[in-house]
Specification:
6-stranded parallel sheet, alpha/beta
Length: about 210
């Protein structure tokens, strides 16, 4: 609202209502049970440095050294022409060095969210309200994300996820470890995330 006032888009007499993003279809993204076995941390986003890809990689490497059974995946499109993008040719080396699986871009993320235990978006630039976070919450997944506009907005820190400082791989690793050391945490936070998605971010309510 302050940005809009400063830019002259609205004036102080106009009534402004903040819409909670574009919403999520909670009948299409249904709550899914957590997968059995080792914790699986999933990041979804375009392969760009600004999205926190390298923070995810560094955190994964640190956590994997302590908990070899943990799994880490990044699903997204290579960004060949973006100045901060990661090229497709870089992926094999990154997979080998960091023990992270890169999944190709897909038109339906639901099966991948269902196979994950915790959703991660360590972006460090101002987002809108990331649809990926809302889709993960609707699936019943706890979220680790950064204290940045957009990313932090739908998350209740310590209840539906964990908010970490931007560009801080060590804090991301600590958050990941907490889910491994406290197996029930992903379940409880995931339940809360689903409830928030239904009550606040359901697309029908947002449209109204």
């Amino acid at each position: 609202h302050k940005d809009m006032l400063d830019a002259g888009i609205v004036d102080s007499k106009q009534n402004v209502i903040q819409v909670p993003g574009s919403g999520v279809d909670t009948t299409r993204f249904i709550q899914q049970p957590l997968p059995a076995g080792a914790p699986h941390f999933l990041m979804v986003g375009r392969l760009m440095r600004d999205k926190g890809v390298y923070e995810f990689l560094a955190a994964a490497k640190a956590v994997k050294a302590e908990f070899p059974e943990a799994r880490f995946s990044i699903l997204g499109r290579a960004e060949e022409s973006n100045p901060t993008g990661i090229c497709a040719n870089d992926i094999p080396q990154l997979e080998s060095e960091y023990s992270v699986v890169f999944l190709p871009e897909t038109k339906d993320v639901r099966p991948y969210l269902a196979q994950s235990s915790v959703f991660v978006l360590p972006s460090f630039y101002r987002e809108g309200l990331p649809r990926t976070i809302l889709e993960a919450m609707a699936t019943g997944r706890a979220v680790i994300t950064t204290d940045m506009p957009g990313c932090r907005d739908p998350i209740i820190d310590g209840e539906s996820g964990i908010i970490i400082p931007p560009q801080d791989a060590a804090s991301l690793a600590t958050a990941m470890r907490s889910f491994i050391q406290n197996p029930e945490q992903a379940h409880h936070m995931g339940q809360k995330a689903r409830m928030i998605a239904e009550n606040i971010y359901d697309v029908a309510k947002v449209n109204d």
